Amino acid sequence: MSDTSHLLDPTLAQQLLGAAREVAAHAYAPYSRFRVGAALLFDDGHITTGCNVENVSFGLTSCAERNALFRAVSERGAAHRIVAIAVTNLNDAASPPCGACRQVMSEFVTPSAVIVFPGDAGIEIRSFAELLPFSFHLETK
Ligand SMILES: [Zn+2]
């Protein structure tokens, strides 16, 4: 792991990855067998987790990151903001969040939010802004 301690405390990063790994065991992935878990750390210290849930109609599959976010909003409302997102899988594969999840999470992250995930060369810790530099925002005139 490169020195990314300025972005996120390494101990906290490992804690979040552990929570994500734990919930990945609940994934419903009979088609891809790619079991993913996500852990979202909110600005009040609360952590919400989620796993991927597939469907035989593949387009209806929902990612771990979005399931975690929707769970968090369902349980606690939308007042809190995400400061860190951890995503991992039980397949020992690189798994940065997909584009759809990045867009959905963009409405709930703090400006300094970070993402932790397994990359091709080990654990990556990146700023959310780096992963989604031009998110869609609704602006009307
Ligand atoms: Zn996704």
Question: In a nutshell, what does this entry contain?
Answer:
By secondary structure, this protein is of the alpha+beta class. The chain has 4 helices and 5 strands; from the N terminus they run αββαβαββα. One of its GO terms (biological process) is nucleobase-containing small molecule metabolic process.
Outline the structure in words:
A hairpin with a 4-residue loop joins β1 (36-42) and β2 (47-51). The chain is globular. It has helices at residues 10-24, 64-76, 99-105, 128-131, and strands at 36-42, 47-51, 82-89, 109-119, 122-127. The protein contains 4 helices and 5 strands. The chain is of the alpha+beta class and 141 residues long. A 5-stranded mixed beta sheet has the order 2-1-3-4-5. The protein has one domain (10-131): Cytidine Deaminase, domain 2. The mean pLDDT is 95. It starts with 9 loop residues before the first helix and ends in a 10-residue tail after the last helix. 28% of the residues lie in helices and 26% in strands. One of its GO terms (molecular function) is cytidine deaminase activity. Residues 11-139 form the CMP/dCMP-type deaminase domain. The active site is at residue 65. Its EC number is 3.5.4.5. This enzyme scavenges exogenous and endogenous cytidine and 2'-deoxycytidine for UMP synthesis.
